[in-house]
Design brief:
The structure is a homodimer. By secondary structure, chain A is of the alpha/beta class. In chain A, 37% of the residues lie in helices and 25% in strands. The first copy, chain A, has helices at 2-9, 25-36, 38-45, 77-80, 98-107, 117-134, 150-157, 172-184, 188-197, 206-209, 212-226, 245-253, 315-335, 376-386, 416-427, and strands at 16-21, 49-55, 72-73, 87-90, 111-114, 138-139, 163-169, 256-267, 270-281, 293-300, 304-311, 353-354, 361-371, 391-396, 404-411, 414-415, 432-441. Chain A is elongated and about 85 Å long.
């Protein structure tokens, strides 16, 4: 292994040679960007950078690119096994064959750049270890928050500080839908359908609107922010499907904006990770992040608050992150300093306890649809009281929806476990109809 | 020189040794941060990091630090000439002796970390060249926007893209004063006096409130963003003293917030740089940056909009940037890859024409204090018309101030040179009193 490691460290003569696997949307953006800024990129790298081969299963589709004959091949093995190639860009996504190709590239001494957060969520540990063993780099800036250089920021920009909490708007589709609902007073289903028509949401939108994508990103962000292991299956995720126009307008009335937030906090030896719709003060800087934009808002011990804002998806924004990683990998090859920074910023990850969601202490917004008859509020209040939940505000506006009226309750800080018990009991009341909507409130983002 | 260069590249055995020159506010923060996070920093650097000497002219002042005997010395030469020291942190500010000390450190093969933007504005070119010659690094993240890692973002995060424009709120004092004026309806003088009492503004506030500090930062940011030479003396700067409560409330009525912006744009072979109060749409994300916070809002060709937000000054925020640079310099020494990235991101700076302010095309807000008599508006309009300036909105509210009423005009896009001519002519009208307030409007930040 050590001999191979040494082999990997030999500096190339002439330009750095790059192979690209996967010529889909992002891949096409990467080719365009490399061409458009070739002169500047060559200058920055010092000895030039050449895209020498592209592999994709589809050799015929037009992509608005004119590719020289022979550049595009079908077999990705022709990239990972080519001794001429220094850096491999992996943009096919998914677990396999992505992982095997990345492993093969690393084992041939090539640095890798990827946007594949699913692969990193599942196989990251193994691949980062492998890269370290073989003395190569893995760049993955594009895997989280697209064009926002949040991985560099966490890994190097804030390397001297200790992060306390992270609030991310990291799913552009959900943020777009929520923003439209709030700005235009429309319902979820309607805005989703329109977003699908406009190509801003997938035909099956669950990955985005149910918080799954945000949970993937949060697992990676929390590792980078706190240097702790965060297994994906320990990140509870709740999406935005359950929210209606009624909730958004009551939120506004209470002084809040609703965002799908990916939240991670480090308190002592514990960390807290969760994805869910959250009410945040409407004048807070992260509340002004609307449309398809992403943002990561951090609290750090010495720095205090900071925020990083930009487009988290899309062909060209994501391509900028991929190519920035290629430039960094190329500089490392030229200088012989692969592995300069640990992949996740910390050389070893801490084992911190992940606090179960039931132990969360939060304020809550509750919308209970109840029959408009005397004594209902008394029943509800008494259940909340028995569960140690005290009420901060009650709004009852008599907007009748199917015979029932919304009772809006804003609680003081309560334990999630207690709240769940209370919600179950209230749901069972005779005068209560349907599902109770529950949104966590974050008043102190800092 | 080449022998010395080689000497500089030898990797140290044992921990990296750091010397600190200047134990003022930021220096004290640096010592605190290095101590507080020592274990993590040692792990990140790999072979440990030790602060082995501090130089300051004042050996007696208590700084809330307990320093081991002999650590603090008076003579900074004992740091720059000590062959044991690998990295020198320069925090004394000003031009001399800072520059001579930094040169001496570089020439002894030491990497340098500095927060001294005045020194870099004047001697940056020489010092960066010198560092390259001697194979060492100069880290200067702390010199612009304090704890916001904007230099890393511009130099590496966005290295694949082409930046088009930059809008910075980079002076915390001015932003604090404007925010308080807008939120509380108070006047400049009153808020300034209070900020001075609270230690948020200097006794002589001109460096901050007259845009000088912002111009220094803009010169550096524009170089990093566009790779072009931007001599400090070519950056026109106008501060916030001329703004009154009247202007802020009219701005709000027109849908704007007023911010002191540092603006740089690259259009073709020209760049535009300027610092001045600017009206921006009040729902724009950068309009929500209030209090002492800083933010840099960028438009880039492929990425689109992005923004970087945080505290631009203060002991601990600035210290985080200094120590992050120290960690990066230490990693480079260990890996032997000093000079991995050109100091300003681009190896060579382009020579772009700097567009004179007179050639600016902008929309303008004008406040003209005029006697409330018939025909005044006609006179004003006719002067504007003769100078090719067309009016978008006129507000006349009859709020009498010293016998005159404010006439508020929002123009369509006009040439600055034409506007200046018109303003001079209007000022000369018999029925016009005092100075005309003129604020540029930026409607399309993207």
């Amino acid at each position: 292994m050590s001999a191979r490691r040494e082999a990997a460290r030999q500096k190339p003569s002439g330009p750095i040679k790059v192979g690209l696997i996967g010529l889909g949307t992002i891949g096409t953006g990467v080719v365009k960007l490399l061409r458009r800024n070739q002169r500047t990129i060559d200058e920055k790298v010092g000895c030039g950078l050449r895209l020498v081969r592209i592999a994709d299963l589809d050799l015929t589709r037009g992509r608005g690119l004119r590719l020289p004959a022979g550049l595009l091949v079908r077999d990705a093995r022709r990239i990972v096994s080519d001794p001429e190639i220094d850096i491999v860009i992996e943009l096919i996504g998914g677990l396999e064959p992505a992982r095997s190709l990345v492993r093969a590239a690393i084992e041939s001494g090539k640095s890798v750049v990827t946007a594949n957060k699913a692969m990193l969520a599942v196989h990251g540990k193994e691949l980062f270890h492998e890269a370290r063993e073989f003395g190569v780099d893995i760049g993955f800036e594009a895997s989280v928050a697209g064009g926002i250089p949040i991985i560099r920021v966490l890994r190097e920009g804030l390397s001297a500080d200790r992060n306390l909490s992270l609030y991310g708007i990291v799913n552009g589709t959900s943020n777009y839908i929520l923003s439209r609902m709030q700005e235009e007073g429309r319902e979820f289903g309607e805005v989703l359908a329109e977003a699908q028509k406009r190509g801003l949401a997938e035909a099956d939108p669950s990955y985005d609107v149910d918080g799954v994508d945000a949970a993937h990103k949060l697992a990676l962000l929390a590792r980078l922010a706190f240097g702790a292991e965060v297994p994906l299956e320990r990140v509870p995720a709740e999406g935005i499907r359950g929210l209606s126009q009624t909730d958004l307008s009551f939120a506004a009335e209470l002084g809040y904006t609703v965002k799908l937030l990916a939240i991670a906090k480090n308190v002592g030896e514990e960390i807290e990770v969760r994805v869910h719709p959250t009410m945040i003060p409407k004048h807070h800087v992260i509340a002004s992040v609307s449309g398809a934009y992403n943002a990561i808002y951090l609290q750090s011990e010495a720095l205090g608050s900071s925020m990083y804002f930009g487009l988290g998806a899309g062909m060209m924004p994501t391509a900028t992150a991929v190519v920035a990683d290629v430039i960094e990998a190329a500089r490392a090859i030229i200088k012989g300093c692969q592995g300069r920074v640990p992949a996740l910023g910390f050389p070893n990850s801490k084992r911190l306890r992940i606090k179960p969601l039931g132990e969360l202490r939060s304020e809550y917004y509750l919308r209970i649809m109840a029959m408009d008859r005397p004594g209902v509020l008394a029943e509800i209040s008494s259940i909340l009281g028995r569960n140690d939940i005290s009420i901060a505000t009650v709004l009852q506006k008599g907007r009748k929806i199917g015979g029932a009226v919304p009772v809006i309750i804003r609680t003081h800080e309560a334990l999630e476990r207690d709240l769940n018990r209370a919600v179950r009991a209230i749901t069972g009341l005779k005068s209560v109809r349907g599902r109770i909507v529950r949104v966590r409130i974050e008043d102190n983002l800092g």
